[in-house]
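Researcher: Re-running this chain for the archive, since the previous output was lost when a drive failed. Same request as before.
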Amino acid sequence: MSRKFFGTDGIRAAANTEPMTAATMLRLAMAAGRHFRRGQHRHRVVIGKDTRLSGYMIEPALTAGFVAMGMDVVLVGPMPTPAVAMLTRSLRAVLGVVISASHNPYQDNGVKLFGPDGYKLSDAVEADIEALMDNGVDGDLAPADGLGRARRLDDAPGRYIEFVKRTFPAGRDLDGLKIVIDCANGAAYRVAPTVLWELGAEVVPMAVSPDGFNINKQCGATDTGHLREQVLAHGADLGIALDGDADRLALIDETGALVNGDQMMALIAGYWQRLDRLRGGGIVATVMSNLGLERHLDGLGLTLERTQVGDRYVVERMRDGGFNVGGEQSGHLILSDYATTGDGLIAALQILAVLVESARPVSEVAHVFDALPQVQRNVPINGGRPLADRRVKDCIQAGEARLAGTGRLLIRLSGTEPIVRVMAEGDDEAVLHTVIDDIARAIADATG
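Model: Regenerated structure tokens:
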């Protein structure tokens, strides 16, 4: 399905360039409002954001569009993406909106939409909204006496903090643990340290001073170097890194080693299996997850079901198959007993629960399986259709033949950036680098 605005995770672009302009955001809100408007009762929309400067432009544009459609808007300010999903259900809203470009730098921004059930929208709903954006909704505007209203919900952080704390096992706390929490100067800069402190931890906060420009800058789940330094300097038990909208998680153990999403999913799946809480007979992950994870789960009698990249595709498969654990290697973990989308803070608390129960260091608890070597490369492209080029196809075919029986190859176009993502996985890392180099060179030649 070809889409004009929506990618794999909502709409995302450089701020104040199409489609991330005030005018287009106004159209988006009007179209989304038209799609979700049912009957003559008052409709409510929840809008949250991260800490980017451009949020001050996009938030009022979206608000104006929804108000013009006769919908009331509840503004919650900087809040994690999963908090907005939760509040959408809690406040009986018909739509939740998050203004964020997740792990991207401040120059970018984006919009994610959640339905009244707190789940991200399907491809079909996004396509309908795009059609309304193209065709216009002027004939459906609310009359002057039917315009919506906008108000701020001052206690939104407190509601989310209490919700998250209730996901930690009753009767347990974090007393005696020293935790460095990196909030990426993003949406969780207030709530995340508070949750950990109220549960009893000694908290060392970092990247909690957003200024509109420093979100994800040398911090957060995709840049954990400084977090590692702080964990070692403070002698902390672990470091927790969230990304700009706090739906992604990275962990640093007490030795300074990174724990990725595959290890975290394996840890939680095994823990929940022992508690007889795991549903679906396994977990759901994407094509990017390591083959070592699949082998580990198989040894536990569990399955690994794979989807295309994108946490909403993981969620769709979880819902269809009755799974309650899923996620991505990148650290988007979905625990559907608690949340409808990835929640870095809730996932961290589940891992901390294992840590508290076992009384062992993170380096032991979170190294669940031995991962196969996995090499990834992002190859910039300048338009065109590089994956349709005959030379690229031949090179990919040769790479697959070389890895047959010992590994696998995955090539895909990014849904959010002008790049081709190339991943090779197998037993021989030197061979993986050779295969990746050949394919990257062929793609560069085809688009140069």
